[in-house]
Amino acid sequence: MPRYLKAHSVRLERLKSGGAPAQARDQMALAEWSALWQSYERRARELARNGVQDERLNQFRWQLEELRVSLFAQELKTPLPVSVKRLEKAWQQLSHG
Prior knowledge:
Elements (H helix, E strand, L loop, with lengths): L1 H48 L5 H18 L11 H13 L1
Helix pairs in contact: 1-2, 1-3, 2-3
């Protein structure tokens, strides 16, 4: 958790000091991340309604957190390689597997 809070602080500082270009980059990254997050949330709600737990979905959720670090606070690094493309592929496997 402390790493995620630090990443959030880095993101806010970058937005304050970066002006319009930083805000534009942030908005693009946020749009990519949000699309994946919305897919995750829909599935999580569906499974919760049915009383089902899926460890793969839980792992995907933490990959989303690592993607957020990667997109907004790259200097903090991630323990495993993560990207929008990798998570899109993981989501496809999760959705169809």
